[in-house]
Input
Amino acid sequence: MLSRRSALLSTFAACVVGPRSWAQPAPAATGDGAAPVTVLRVQRRILEVNGKPAPVLGIGQPNGVRGLTTEVGQQFRVRVVNDLDTPTLIHWHGLAPPWRQDGVPGISGPPISPGAGADYDFPLRFGGTFWMHSHEGLQEQLLLAAPLIIRDARDSAAQQEAVITLADFSFTPPEEIYEGLRRGSRKPRETPTAPDLNDVNYDAFLANDRTLSDPETIRVEPGETMLLRVINASAMSAYHIDLGDLLGALVAVDGSSVHPIAGRRFPIAVAQRLDILIAIPKRPAPHPVLAILEGERRQTGVILVAGKAPVARLPELAPVASSALNLDLERRLRATEPLATRAPDRLLHVDLTGEMSGYIWSINSVVWNKDVPPLTVAQGERVEMEITNRTLMPHPMHLHGHRFQVVEIDGERFSGAVRDTVLAPPGKRVVIAFDANNPGWWAFHCHLLYHQAAGMFTTLKYI
Output
């Protein structure tokens, strides 16, 4: 039987041989059927950014491959080795591991000490585009993140695909960035009426560790179809993904399938992912895939090169500034496998609160500390969480250990996308629903790194 994604391909073109991405398959399983242990090492590395050496962090396999690709139905058997001189801990963003293997210091377990390692072993019950990143301190700003791709029946070995991992970069240490925000030093807004966006003035925006001054070029076959997996691993920056002259079909968000939506531009908030099928025209040509910073002209991206086409240098500024992200696309998304229809057993009210003055961010007007009581749920409940943004800034909200469905925006009920991270723009009310089927103690927070650090964080605990 053809998978849903295979059926969609017939409306575009034949598949392309030869997947290319940062993340590569884990080693083959051993003869006894058990998945092998994949070693991921957390290390320091050097990039070249704007012509200068840039010290950053990274996580990859001993052969140098960034991240990990594996398959649904296998065990996630991973050993994380900390080669840094400071503690670290890796969160498997979008997965639903046992609570103690979620990778949040102080919530699911202690950080990994320098020179030590930690073992993970749990079943992979669903597939899609996910990612891994540090949840220790501000290490995520130092690019301690990588793709985590779980292939499933939607995928074909004959289909070409590419992973695009987006990041925001600064030569200023993250601790200094954070202290500057707390002191009230931030770049001035372009106009008094502009949306309150982009707290940090970054030195560069990266796609697969490169800027548009030296972008990654990905060879594709003219007339074929490919899958783009876009991961926004930025600490603070949202984008509009611009396909240029290519027509795409959005087929999954945050790893979960949606009924396809055709388009040439798609928004992506921090921590979200987009799976986009693209039909490559039959003629040889370069096809830039750009990520334009929300509310600004700055951009990054990669270039898909069909055939023997010449590649021209691309500007790092778009012709016009992009708009602020909104929920127009979110309202249109429909899950192909929505939650079963069921009345909620519990309703949680979450107000996103805070202000730029003093850089104070909170949930229900409480700045997170270890003594803050958790939100509570019980095993087997259908839970609805009403998220109301009472601030002047957007907040991408991430719930650990669960996949949820967007079921309401500003009073309009619908069977929306299944996600793990949802954007709450200023003044908006978003309701998500999930089944309490993964007992433990879980983080729930804004995925803007410095908002999280400043207190827009809480926990959800089974009782």
About this structure: Residues 134 and 378 are 29 Å apart (CA to CA). Residues 1-31 have pLDDT under 50 and may be disordered.
